[in-house]
histidine kinase (Brevibacterium picturae), 381 residues
Amino acid sequence: MWLVDLLVAVGVFLYNLPTIATSAPHLTYGSGDYAALVVLSLVMCAIYILRRRSPLAVLVAMLALACAQLLFGAPIIMADIIVLFAVYTVATRYVWPVSLPAALVVVGWLLVAIVPNLGDDFIDVGQLGVLIVVTLWVWTWGTLVRIRRQYMDGLRERAEQAERQRETNARIAVAEERARIAREIHDIVSHSLSVVVLMSDGAAAKVDSEPERAKSAMLTARDTGRTALTDMRRMLGVLRDDEPGSHAPQPGTAQLDALVEQSYAAGLPVTLTIEGEATSVPDGIGLTIYRLVQEALTNVRKHAGPNLTRADVRLEYRQDEVEVCITDNGQGPVNDRPDSNGHGLVGMRERVAAHGGTFTAGPRESSGFEITAMLPLEGGS
């Protein structure tokens, strides 16, 4: 850009040279006043190159040089055009409380320099008015350019903020997805491994006395392990799209019968009761219900104690919500049960809260433990 400023300065100076003598009647080529005006115009054009670095200082220096012209009998010369460029630059860089007074100072200089010479056939009132209007127009143009630049800068800043917000949201989404995967893996591993361990213990105990029951238990353990592997592949498929089974359907309320049967086969005296008219449950709600029951039954196996005789899973459909309740009559010490700070209960509470539902968990008045969740059907996903 400095090259453009240099060309403008050189052009104005060269255009100014042949017109200096006409700026005042007494000037003649080669006189001292003429030489002084040439030097003043040269300096004025030279400092124009610095307008981008110090626009206000350049304008002040130009006005000082323009006032010095009066000492040599030239109210105004062609080189003074470059002052308008300086006014424009100031208007593009400074707010109007700074740039407008600068423009008015230039107008004041025009009045001081020209008005006393109006009767000398130098310039008339109409031409003076044009110069004032042009000065104010140049200031207005520069001000509009500054406003547009600020507007464009604001748009760029908002676009950058939006991009940063998108990146932040993406990181949050990744963190939430990892937390979801962690909960899914916890549910799958804790439930499946507990079933496999129980069935393996039962098979080991009956392998000599009741080989058929031992075989059935081992087959159940095998099927449970395969199901767990399939579920794990599906969850890991979120990270690797080409993983086999990554697009398999998620479990839901339709798989609760199989889940309860699997737990019953593992030795847990559990029953499933469904009340109300089964409505279409959104996939997200169905998965949450399945994982709640799965985690709750896992906790019953781990913490209910040897006196457990009954565990109930109740699913009640209502008009706009579904209630899930898992209870047992275990007699184990309350301190051995998972509390509200347990990892499993925290995961269940987060699942329910994600759908705008309510979750409660705690010991029953008589005996055992109870987990209840209310999930709204409207807006589910």
